Amino acid sequence: MKIVFDFGGVLFSWHPVRMLQRELPHVAPNAAAAVHWVAHIFQGYAGDWGDFDRGTVSVPELVQRIATRTGLAAADVRTVIDAVPRELQPVPETVMLLRRLHAAGHELYFLSNMPAPYAEQLESENDFMRCFRDGVFSARVQLAKPEAAIFELARERFGAQASELVFLDDHVPNVEAARSLGWHALHFSHAAQAEAALRELGWHA
Question: How confident is the model at residue 204 (pLDDT cuts 50, 70, 90)?
């Protein structure tokens, strides 16, 4: 069996409402305003941001597209884009789980929707990336979750049958997509919950 980690919201923190309140207080002075702008900027990680995840739009193009669509100032949009890596901080409890699983000899992989500049930064700044045998970043294959094609590509790349893969993701549509293709998929909420679920499957860290 092989364990596959998502990144944002699983191995790395991802709180876009908090991020917008911190980075754009004049636009998102409270949680309600931040929720509004998160929906319009990220579009549920479809639309413009989905193309950024898929690696088919550059940062300057993304800034222009979001600014034109939302009416936000281009400088504010760029501030948000530049702030994302600062928000994607390692979650200590999940990193500890990853390291224990690695020490126990489990095969570990990742499958993450991640724009290319963020992927490069995460790889260069986090030594625990060495725990992974391999992984797939969406921007490098120009596919994105929850599309079936990226799961199939990952399965083939990891050299596994679908039934051999356990996938940890915090986004329900991605979990459902993986399950529909025969993967074991767990809806991640926090490391202790994930570890308990893995133990139920007979996997011990």
Answer: low
